[in-house]
Amino acid sequence: MDELVRFVSARLSDGIDTAHTCGQMLVAHGDATLGVSSEAAERHARFQVHAAETKRTLFQETIRPYLDVPGPAGLVAEQQLRIFASLYADHPDYRNEWRP
User: Fold this and answer.
1) Rounded CA gap, 75 and 32, in Å?
2) Contact in structure between 38 and 27 (CB atoms under 8 Å)
3) Phi, psi at residue 93, to the nearest 5°?
4) CA–CA separation, 51 vs 31, rounded Å?
5) Per-domain boundaries in the chain
6) Are 6 and 81 in contact (CB under 8 A)?
């Protein structure tokens, strides 16, 4: 289970980094290249970063603390962990045994 937790944590951190990078690129080049207004680009960039941070918070506050809890809470947390991991099923480090 520890490897799965590390895998999901790493992917969530990667997601935040990617959201920041893509957001900066969209803001810098969106208007000229994509025809996206600077206001819309900034709004979308903020949304993507917030969404990535929210996924990490959800994982850290509502799944991780319950993983070793016996009974239904622990079982639900483990299933939620596997569902989160399945978001990254195309990642080369994802393992089939982690599927929900």
Assistant:
1) 50
2) yes
3) -90, -5
4) 23
5) 2-98
6) no
